[in-house]
Amino acid sequence: MRRSLRHALATLAACLLVFVAVVHAAPENAGNPSSPEAILARADTIKATDFATFGHLIDDLARFEAKLAPAERWKLRFLQGWRATWVGDYDAGRKALEDVADNANDNVLRLRATATLINLLGIGHRYQDAFMRLNQLQELMPSIRDRKARFQGLGEASQLLSSAGQFEQAEAYAREMMENPPPGETICKGAQHLLRARREANRLETLDPMYLRAIETCDAAGDDVFADSMRSDIAAFHLAHERPAEAVKILIDTRDGARALNYPALLAEYDATLAQAYLKLGDLANARRFGLSAVAGSIRDEFTDPRRVGYGVLYQVEQQLGNAAAALAYHEKFMAADKAYLDDVGARSLAFQIVDQQLLARKAEVDALNKQNEILRLTGALDRKEVETGRLYIFVLLAGLAAIAWLVLWLRRSQLRFMKLARRDGLTGICNREHFVEQAERVLAYGARSDRGACLILFDLDHFKNVNDTYGHAVGDEVLKRAVDVCRRALHACDVFGRLGGEEFAVLLPDCSPAQARARAEQLRLSIAATSATQIRPNMVVTASFGIAGTMQCGFELHRLLVVADAALYRAKRAGRNCVFMGDTGDIPDSPYLSEARG
């Protein structure tokens, strides 16, 4: 009761202070703690820690908005947008923040509004708009000396760039956050962004003690979300390096604290990693428990990575327990979640590329306009000297430029068309044999220089000749295209996928171990077998046989990998088809690679 009374009196006092400050505001009371400027500063400071008082201050100032100075009105507009975003009114928040970002005369306030907009647009999956705002933020950054505003902008930029696969720039911004934190901040947030970017880029070879120090700093500063996010990333690192027990220990020891944060997205990450770790340890009960928790705790109506991982673990648990129906149901959900998650990742990367190209095109337009203006200036000078000669010169110049532009455009379009025809398989749209060999040798050469292993998967469709003989080549072509579509959805952007001829295909997996390659091949095999061959013949089942060769056994020579993988594929055919065999170099002669028509 006393606490409620004190809160009511504090709120009433705040309202009276606002009224007095607005009515009596004058230059001489700029340093008065009850002035609009001071009240706005206080509201800005407590907005994330005392939201109720913050809301009262903003509402009371809004009543006298017409009497505020222009800078104070913009600050009030920014805080109103921030509050609308906080309570979930994203449309109102976005409009207010866009108004400040585009029209305010204070660059620091514009940068803060832009950084908040980037976060808001990213949450709403409006990635192209988010990257346009990121470009605006990058243009503002050099003029900003406010360290706290720069810190906020660097954090949002690092997270957005990391989500689109631009890891080097994301790491650069995170390092700047760590090197120059403003008063009241530590290395905590920068270290978390840096760790996440390095892990997602597969550049985290060892755990730097810096991250453990950063976690201690986060705990001391009360930044529990960032501390637990780093613990989640460290656990995922241990899991990726075949240390599931260490991953379980880190997460189980801190899971209750993470749950107390009431941050479902972080808890879903915890549970997804725990589910994978327990599955590797053979503890199917706990794997199922945390897999279900990861699915339930993921963002509703969105296919996030924890949901994808949770369904994948549940599928494997039910499969190992022999529950075929449940395994199939979870596999279908896993495939849907995996496709949606990869589509979202691709959308972020595509949005970045689109905005980047738009900015380059805009710069080219500005350069072209500048050149045109220069040409017009020179032309005007010539006109003043000799009108007739100048007119003739302009006509010839413009005609020549138009002819050159048309010729360059025509040649470029022809070149792109011929390059596409030369590199792509006409039926499936993936790499043809020659282009696959070229790309694969380039990736292997890079892997040899950087000492990163790779694996080659060869597979072909079982009894494909019977499909052609029975149903005709049109149905056979449709079977090939459906199989390729299934595989493309399961492959990564960095994988090299090509058709070697007929029904035989090859996939080169960079930075991949034999165990991972076998798991990927099994995934492809299951996906092909689980998908109907064609739409008009849904009951016709097509399977594939797989052979794998890795650089760990065969080296980085493509010819050798093809020979070993082809022999493994032949063994898979002899073993009954629809299976995966690893290559064995012991009995493979050093002879030219010849693909056999195995059917």
What this model shows, in words?
Strands 2-3-1-4-5 form a 5-stranded mixed β-sheet, sandwiched between helices. The chain has helices at 2-23, 36-46, 51-62, 70-86, 90-103, 107-123, 127-140, 147-163, 167-179, 188-200, 209-221, 224-240, 244-260, 264-281, 284-297, 305-321, 324-385, 387-423, 433-450, 464-471, 473-490, 514-530, 551-554, 558-574; strands at residues 454-461, 496-501, 504-510, 544-550, 580-582. Helix 4 packs antiparallel against helix 5 (90-103). The radius of gyration is 31 Å and the shape is globular. By secondary structure, the protein is mainly α. Among the domains are: 1-68, no CATH class; 363-423, no CATH class; 433-587, 2-Layer Sandwich (Alpha-Beta Plaits).
Task: For the structure shown, list the relevant keywords.
mainly alpha; Alpha-Beta Plaits; five-stranded mixed β-sheet; 24 helices; globular; disordered C terminus; transmembrane helix; Diguanylate_Cyclase; EC 2.7.7.65; transmembrane
Strand order within the widest sheet? 2-3-1-4-5
Order of helices and strands: HHHHHHHHHHHHHHHHHHHEHHEEHEHHE
How big a fraction of the residues is strand? 5-15%
Q: Let me know the largest β-sheet.
A: 5 strands, mixed
Number of helices: 24
Percent helix, as a range, is over 70%
CATH class of the domain at 433-587: Alpha Beta
Q: What class would the helix/strand composition place it in?
A: mainly alpha
CATH topology of the domain at 433-587: Alpha-Beta Plaits
Number of strands: 5
Average of the residue pLDDT scores: 82
Return residue spans where pLDDT drops below 50 for at least 5 consecutive residues. Answer: 1-31, 589-599
Which descriptor suits the 3D outline? globular
CATH architecture of the domain at 433-587: 2-Layer Sandwich
CATH superfamily of the domain at 433-587: Reverse transcriptase/Diguanylate cyclase domain
Distance between the termini: 83 Å
Radius of gyration: 31 Å
